[in-house]
Amino acid sequence: MDKNEFKFLVDSSSDVPKFRQLIESVNNAISDKRLNVGDHLPSVNKVCNEYKLSRDTVFKAYTLLKEQGVIQSVPNKGYFIAKEIRRVFLFLDTFKAYKEVLYDSFFKNLPDNVIADVHFHHYNPGVFRKQIEESIGKYAKYVVMPFDHPSMEDSLRLLPEEKLLLIDWKIYDTPTSNVLYQDFGQPINDELKKAMNRIRKYKKLTFVYPEFTNHPYDSVDYFLRFCRKHKINCEVIDDSSHFEIEKGVGYISVSDRILGIFLEQTREKGLEPGEDVGFISYNETPMKKFIYKGITVLSTDFKQMGMKAAEFVAHDAPMRLCIPTHLKLRESF
């Protein structure tokens, strides 16, 4: 590239500091392949004169880019692009313990030349829309965890489909969407069948689906189908405000808050988990195998999900993949 060809994007009315705008201009140009390894950047003096910026501002931007390994300086020749940088938009719902597993796996498997910006929407459609709008055109890839809301489809349409990966929940996808998901329904049937001997020792199976959860209701639907098919006495609790455990009942819940209440009440009532009462918890975390002799979990592999999401970022190939969900039997059930 001729040294005069690259143009910085500097908005004097923006709240973003000028040196940061210069850095973003370079990173975005590399992500979009408008700048390639070996390309020459304008000199500090040229940028100062053309964009009416102070020497300190431009020098600060170039120095930070050098520290990041993005550019290098050659005496008497100027500044050159040293490596290809790709910026990625990672958009999660919340930062729970099991999401931390996904997050860590994603970052550990990213190529060295990828910078990921992490954002959280907390199931707020307004926040979701605003973050999506502000991200348009800034990233090489978008890894987004959607949720069920009428505005979701329109918001997702703002992003280029070939650069977008929907993760965790297969919702609002199209036949050509990239999607990396878990099945919240069928594994309830398939995996609980493997624990039938343990299930039969309980007089009732209760699914606690608290009012504050955003977990897909598919899990409850398939739970009820499973219980009807196998003639198991069952119940669904959707108001957890007066949740009280009962001896002889096995519980399933999508909430770690309910797990905490369950363990507290077993201690208060002198009941032994896995003997007097049972508990199956959704979503594996590093600690659940150690809590109270081990908590039985029904979970997808979030480590694999993070690894595959990083694979999508690293390669320009479509992805449609379901990460299996498995039951891990431990002492709590």
UniProtKB/TrEMBL annotation:
One of its GO terms (molecular function) is DNA binding. Transmembrane segments: none annotated. Keywords: DNA-binding, Transcription, Transcription regulation. PROSITE patterns: HTH_GNTR. The keyword S-adenosyl-L-methionine does not apply. InterPro entries: Peripla_BP_I, Tscrpt_reg_HTH_GntR, WH-like_DNA-bd_sf, WH_DNA-bd_sf. Residues 16-84 form the HTH gntR-type domain. The keyword Ligase does not apply. PANTHER family: GNTR-FAMILY TRANSCRIPTIONAL REGULATOR, HTH-TYPE TRANSCRIPTIONAL REPRESSOR YTRA. This is GntR family transcriptional regulator.
